Amino acid sequence: MSILDGIVKGLSGILPQDDPDVKILNAQTELKELVAKEEKAYARLGRQVYEADGGESYPEMKTELDLLAAGRREAEERLRAAKDEKEAAERAAAEERARREAEEQARSCPNCGHINPEGTNFCSECGTKLAPPAAQAAKRFCSNCGSEIAVGYRFCSACGTKAD
């Protein structure tokens, strides 16, 4: 039942039931529901008949169903690939956000919180001496998949392997 059908059915319940238009609407709704139930019953019956002999009695249907099944598998694979791609993009965005936040944190003043330009030794807002920039850590790569492992990570964010 569609949303619109549900709304119409709900509205028909508050309308005067002796109105000819309401009677027609109620009869049409009932007929539509019965036809849908009948279609589902025929579909179940057809599946049972088809499965009983493996489709041998209906070779043209077997071919069509085999093609549909292959198309469904391909669509499921595309869906899985699209979800994996989205997850990888989200993971990369989170890693980039974390890197930027860490970089910003390293340049922020411990006294006033002002974000200073890179290479600044004293806060440009309050004059507090800033910590010297941390030496760039050597890049680490996953021994399993070769992806770069971000600073501070104990596991590869691409494949989950524990970092060396």
Description:
This protein is mainly alpha-helical and 164 residues long. Helix content is 57%, strand content 2%. It contains 3 helices and 2 strands. A two-stranded antiparallel ribbon has the order 1-2. The two termini are 56 Å apart. The mean pLDDT is 86.
Keywords:
mainly alpha; single chain; elongated; 164 residues
Q: What helical percentage do the residues reach?
A: 55-70%
Supply Rg.
32 Å
Strand order, largest beta sheet: 1-2
Sheet of most strands:
2 strands, antiparallel
Quick recap:
The chain has three helices and two strands, in the order αααββ. The chain is mainly alpha-helical and 164 residues long.
Please give the structural blueprint.
Layout: H1 3-14, H2 20-53, H3 59-106, E1 140-141, E2 148-149
Antiparallel strand pairs: 1-2
Helix pairs in contact: 1-2
